[in-house]
Amino acid sequence: MQEIFGDDVDTVIADRRYGWINGLVREIVQRPAANRQTVSDKIDKIVTHRLFGIPIFLMAMWVVFKMTADVSAPYLDWVDGVINGPITHWIAALLGLLDLTGTWVESLFVDGVLAGVGGVLVFVPVLMFLYLALAILEDSGYMARAAFVMDRLMHTLGLHGKSFLPMLVGFGCTVPAFYATRTLENEKDRILTGLLVPFMSCGARLPVYVLFAAVFFPQNSGAVVFWLYLLGIGTAILLGIALKNTLFKGKEQSTFVMELPPYRLPTLRSIWFHMWERTSGFVKKAWTIIMATSIILWFLMAIPVRGEGSFADTDIDHSVFAAANQIIAPVFQPLGFGNWQASSALLTGFVAKEVVVSAMSQVYAVEQAGQAEAPPTFFEDIGGIITSFVSATGDTIKSLPLIVGVNLFEDEVEEAPTELMSAIKEGFETSSGGHGALAALAFMVFVLIYTPCMSAVAAERQELGMKWTWVSIVGQLLLAWLMAFAVFQGGKLLGLG
After folding, report:
1. What does the DSSP 8-state code read for residue 364?
2. pTM for this structure?
3. How far apart are CA 440 and CA 428, in angstroms?
């Protein structure tokens, strides 16, 4: 049948069945004369076209990530200014009232909690814009078309379009993506899909991409983020083909049939619900897992192992945390980021990928410039928050045309790097021997590929079993190292970076 019809058997059978049903309906059902093709049908002729479907899907994803990385930048700067300005002033003033200025308690709150949690909360606008774009695509009915369009490509992996749905969920969070594999009836389908799900970049990895893209590729940050997401998809495809022809050789293919809902105009209430639900989950994680991790890191960085410092008054390079990570750091030297700061951030990423940014905010301890003037009053801070928010909103509106590469405002000013960004750039330039951009790209690739967070690993063990979970963990670590090595060393051979 495949030789005769030029298509796989499942598709031919489904096509013939639906053709027979359609013929029967035409003979039996009487429709009003005015019944014509709906608007959804006309749009689907283009959107689900076998040639144009995937390029349209990639264009939609491009717009999503341009909006996420570029349009959200003014609000990112606004949150950063609020945390490092008014909130820092208020905490310092409160500690002063309690006569704790200059003590280890102040260091815990400022260098531990505020640096760790605040460093992650800065990226809340980025995630809000991501969830806004995804909510619009979901509620409009386009995401169902994406699964339909990807069905033919998924067949090359021995899967079908239904397996792409957990992967789409994985762009938001890997944990529910593992649970979404339950919708697959075939056990081998579930295992193969579960092994590929972690390569879809979850929202927690996005702050890492945005931070490093802004530091090393400020003019093309949106494009860098987009290509990282494509790299994750491409890696999953190639790995799926390899697994299909080795561990899952001879697996029976399943038929995929789905009904496409009509296109609908998304409602503000529905979009806000999706944005709030997902963003609030991120913020809750910041106040629980990330805060606990930040406090633990602070204690480890406050305990000296050498030098003349004392508790909470020691050079960070002489701390227990630095000494432990200096043992691991040489493993990453061939990848261009063999300093202990980068390796420690990756290690804490096993707790949650957001903690990578949080850890860097702490380990790249930047000295805040002392204020010669008296700090602003409470009402001055409130006024500054409001005016800076209005300014960020105006800058965001100005940046909207940039999504399609149009600049309507010639007076656009390039943002100055923060002290954390400058410290990261200097650290990577030093550890890579002057190839900082290549090392940063290798670091982002490693974050993309290596083992997801503990919560995701727990969900993976629950859905796939301990054996496949260990296969996944070890395989992802090895693949992450090899791909980052190829990026850095290959880039150097080509004279890049």
Report:
1. S
2. 0.76
3. 7
